[in-house]
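User: Predict the structure for this protein chain, please.
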Amino acid sequence: MAKSRGELTMGLLAGRNAVVTGGAQGIGYEIAVVLGDAGARVVIGDIDADAAAQAAERLTENGIAASSLRCDVTDEDEVAALVAHCGEVFGPVGVMVNNAGITRDATLRTMRIDDFRAVLDVHLTGAWNGTRHAAEAMRAHGEGGSIVNISSIAGKVGNFGQTNYSAAKAGLVGLTKASAKELAKAGIRVNAVQPGLIRTAMTEAMPAAAWDAKLAEIPMGRAGEPAEVAQVVLFLASGMASYLTGAVIEATGGRYM
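Assistant: Here is the predicted structure, written as structure tokens:
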């Protein structure tokens, strides 16, 4: 009999403590589920405190040790508090997933500068804050760790109407590679994932013509599922990726390869 996904990954993160920003819903929540199923104790950070608490409760109901804390990733003190919360509740953070993000789409001609800055601040400054504070906690613990940044294929090719989002996601690649070089000697690996078209509530709300156009660009002929992104994160977080740092993995079904 074939083993289930949970059986195949069980124990990969046993004894590890993970923090996931933007983990109350969507891909972030699925990352929390997959890391938890692999044995990690999970802290969800999200700007929506109620949604974060509800997400942690769902994880707990499914047998995953979980906690939550409101966190605005653009606020350095709140990110520091999130990492400290993990240490207080479960122990030192061993896996940090910088997933929090927003969109403020508009064409270059119509985009407001506040919306450009807001998207860069959440995605890029937020990941910088998460990387810095998680890395310091990992250094202090002395057992290394794994940091995973959630970029996007938009950071490779650019998306129409998303100069802010595409710039932020491209910036995450540079942040990943530079911090990987700085942190390698401390045993801390830093990698990134670039998802493509993933089936979420947001993407499924696209007009049918736009969805079909994107689908036609994918050699595998289908959209990805949130769990398929989460499984890449699990791989990078686990010992299976022990010799990977500064890597960027595209989870796109071959789109834009």
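Strands lie at 17-21, 41-46, 66-70, 95-98, 145-150, 188-195, 248-251.
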